[in-house]
Every structure is written in C-alpha cells, then in structure tokens.
Design a protein that fits this description.
Strand 11 and strand 12 form a beta hairpin. The N and C termini lie far apart (about 100 Å). The radius of gyration is 27 Å and the shape is globular. By secondary structure, the protein is an alpha+beta fold. The protein has a single domain, classed as Lipoprotein localisation LolA/LolB/LppX (outer membrane lipoprotein receptor (LolB), chain A), CATH 2.50.20.10. The protein is about 15% helix and about 45% strand.
Length: about 290
Amino acid sequence: MKYLVTSKLRIVFILLLVIQASCISRKRILSQDERLLPAKTSTREELLHQLEERSSSVQTLQGTIFLDLSGGGAKSGVLTEYHQTTAYVVVDRPRQIRFKVVVPIVLSTIADMVSDGREVRVSIPFKNQFVVGAASEPLVTKTALANLRPQHLLDGLFVDIRPYEKNPEVKSSLEEIVQGRRSYYVFSFIDFAGPYAQMLEKLWIDRTDLQISRKEVFGNDGRIETEVEYSNYQTDGESSFPHTIVIQRPVEEYTLKMAFQKATLNQKLAEDTFNLERPAGSDLVQIAR
C-alpha cells in the first residue's frame, strides 16, 4: 500500500512539472515572413578576393540618374529637398569626377561640378556663380546642391579596399551579424598605427547574394562620417554595379539617393570630359583653405 501511494505521488509530481512547463513555453510554427532568408556561405579568403576584384573592376563610369536630395534641417533650421531631379555623372578613377544636375524636362543646368581630387569647380548658373576651392575643404553655401562635395560622391559610388591592403598598420576583422530576416558578413578595417586603434571602415556583405549592401566610413573621432547603401545590382560586361545608391553625410546634413537609369562601365571618355570653364560674366567665389 505504501508503495502504491508513493508511486501515485510521483505521478502527480511529474504531471505538475509538465503542466508548469507547458505554461512557460510553447511551440509555434514560424510563418515564411518570419524566417531568415536563405544565406550563402563563403570563406574569409573568398570574401576578400571578391572585395579586391570589386575594388578594381570599374575604371570609368558614365551614368544618367534620377536624384533625390534632402539637405539641412537640425543645424540650419531649413530643410531643402529635390525630388526626381535628373543628373549625369562621369567618373575616371581614382580621382576624376563630373556631376551635373539639371531641371527635369527642360534640362537646364542647376549645378555642374568637377573635381580632380585636389580642386573642385562648381558652376551654379541660376545664381550666376562659379565656385572654386580645394577638394578637401567644404564648399559652404546656402544651397544643398552646391554643398555636395564631389569627392564624397566618388567615395560613395565605389568600394575600394586597396589602400588598406597596402598599409601594414591596417588590419581587418570578420564577423557575422543578423538583422531582421537577413544575415551579413561584416568586414571591419582598423588602423593600429596610433596609440589607440581607430575604426576606418565597415563593409556589409548580404549573405542572400554575397553583394555589398552597406559601407560605413568613420572619422577620427570614431563617429560615422559617411554611410552608403547599395542595392539593385546589374551586370555590364564582367562588372556588377549597384543601380540604387543612397549616401548619407550627417556632418553636412544631407542624404542623396541616386537611382541609375543608365550606367555604362569601362568605356573610353572624351578628352574634354572634365573641362569646366568659368562662364563669362559669372561671379567668382573662391573658397580659402
């Protein structure tokens, strides 16, 4: 009799544990929209090789763009927006870029800017101004378009890890990160030359297609100077290029979205492509260092 009572108590105790456990946890089948997207796998060496190829695959670029630009806001108190504006870009890497913004339909020029990496020249016809300054200096004006610095556009259009590979003080690390339904390989490039390690850049590789989806460039103070998102990749010859690029520059308070309607890669450019002369009668604005 004592044995039967003990057995019954054990059964009751086990049932109580089962009931309590069922109250704490439950199983649920995740819907398709809640599951991680299929992810491809690649080794560190394969990813670095891909980044090396991507760094040098495009030498020249000619593109027609639909441009969305917002500038200003928190600091100036004024937000300027341009929507679905047409622009043309021509690049001869590593330093030459021309960026021309025109009024839709009538195609009259809003701003035409050229940079060779040392000097930047900007023609602003509607203000009758011609701005000249060092490429490393900000062009401080009251228009969001004129504050676009060609060098930032050039850096945003492309990914290039070659300067890091040539610098023995720069090391890279690789980690896997999950955000939402997507997983990423994230390369971090860190400079160990100074007394403190300095983050230089992060590259996010989407594991659904192993394409670069994001670039983050850091300043000396450790804050993000530039964040770029890449999507809508298309192939021209042997090179793949993103046809939607969004550049954010927190310091200058602007966000630029470029949707390429046409992009031609690695074609020979005309010799006068980057010649931008000062229009007769325009006001010269020189930006001092």
